[in-house]
Amino acid sequence: MTGAALRVNDVATGSRVLAFGDYQPAKVVTNDDLARTVDTNDEWIRSRVGIVERRIAAPGETIVDMAAQAGGKALAGSGLSPADIDLVIVATCSAETPMPNQAAAVAHRLGIEAPGAFDLNAACAGFCYGLAAADAAVRTGSARNVLVIGAEKMSQWIDWTDRSTCIIFADGAGAAVVGAAAEPGIGPVAWGSAGAHADRIAIADRTSFLRQEGQAVFRWATTAVAPVALAACERAGVAPDDLAAVVPHQANLRIVEAIARKVKAANAVVADDIRRSGNTSGASIPLALSHMIERGDVPSGAPALLIGFGAGLAYAAQVIQIP
Amino acid sequence: MAVATEQQILDGLAEIIDEIVGIDKSEVTPEKNFIDDLDIDSLSMVEIAVAAQEQFGVEIPDDELRNLKTVQDVINFVQNLQQNGANA
Asked: H/E element holding A248?
């Protein structure tokens, strides 16, 4: 027996990012600051990971605080009002506690009443996963507009006596407002995971700090990620030479440069936000993009390749149009 | 894949090192130590190993990479694996 077909929403043909926003804590931690507490130095950090300085949240400053700041800025930039947002997604892997989620509290802080609200954990790939979910929600009519935020307080999961991790990670938030568009401005996502390597980057239990197998992760990131990025270009029908920006997750400048070499986007600006922001995990891609747009590095409407990868191991890439 | 001669491996390796860390090909000679003589760090070694894997068709895992201190070490490692692979 066949049931009656379910009614579905009117479908938008495409979605696009309307605006980005960013937030970084006030406190700057330089390499020299770190060299006073662990055995390292400025030259070593710059040459190995490319970081000059990073921002660290104040003790009482939460992921919700940072996410709301970045989200508010993106919302203001989009010209929409809180009432226009039907869904809030917060990509994070560094929450203080597992519940409640961050997204509902962020929505409340921004005056967005009763939206769908969920957190998403794909670590450093989280923002790209969130953007794919937002694109789908808009195009299926589940939401008119979506606020997607990557927000992390990595500092609370870092062992500040472990020089292999404390020099890398940092705090911050980046956000995007996604709305309907006649012409698609968010390309199909290319995503995947490699759970066999789950222990390569992990927080083992509730009393542990983040640990990673640096060399193994470096090898994976510099070999397995570029093909995913090229698959995203292929699916969006954009040749690498036509890209105006390549924005890999800001894991390590050496990884960023290795991926960029393999993508061979001859005319693109390659994000190097890690120099001043450190590795902010799920926040790094929207943070870098927001800074690039603010500086005028990339023109409105130009195609940018976003490449997320990290713990899981999880990865995702897509091509978007710069708002 | 055909077994490469020692000179072919050296030339291929020199080209890879030039591309990844910008060291002139003439600097890459068999007796050179990667860290002490060529100033190549462990992360660049990973990149060089991956490129060498693609070029020579052998696997150079991280555990083995630690033992490859000189250019000659890599030449020997690649030749051994290629010969074993060819005999298999």
From this structure: strand A245-248
A160 contacts A29 by C-beta, under 8 angstroms: no
Tokens of A3: 């049931």
pLDDT at site A81: 98
Residues A31 and A150 in one domain: yes
| Contact assessment for residue A92 and residue A150, using Cβ atoms and an 8 Å cutoff | yes
Q: What is the ipTM of this complex?
A: 0.81
Out of A216, A222, A254, closest to residue B50 by CB: A222
Q: Which of A124, A128, A166, A233 is catalytic?
A: A124
Q: Where are the domains of chain B?
A: 6-87
In DSSP terms, which residues pair with A191 in a beta bridge? A316
Question: Containing domain of residue A249, as a range?
Answer: 190-321
Q: Answer yes or no: A233 catalytic.
A: no
pLDDT at B62 over 90: no
Read off the pLDDT of residues A203-247 as tens digits, 9 standing for 90 and up.
Answer: 999 999 999 998 899 999 999 999 999 999 999 999 999 999 999
* In chain A, residues 256-295 whose CB comes closer than 8 Å to chain B: 258
Specify whether A117 is located in the same domain as A63: yes
Distance CA A150, CA A152 (A): 7
Neighbours of A39 (CB within 10 A): 9
Query: Which two three-digit tokens encode residue A139?
Result: 């195009």
Residues ≥6 apart with Cβ < 8 Å to A276: A52, A53, A54
Residue type, A28: V
Taking a C-beta distance cutoff of 8 angstroms, is the pair A153, A94 a contact?
yes
Residue B23 has pLDDT above 50, yes or no: yes
Task: Tell me which fold the domain B6-87 belongs to.
Answer: 1.10.1200
Q: Are residues A206 and A87 in the same domain?
A: no
Query: What is the value of pTM for the model shown?
Result: 0.93
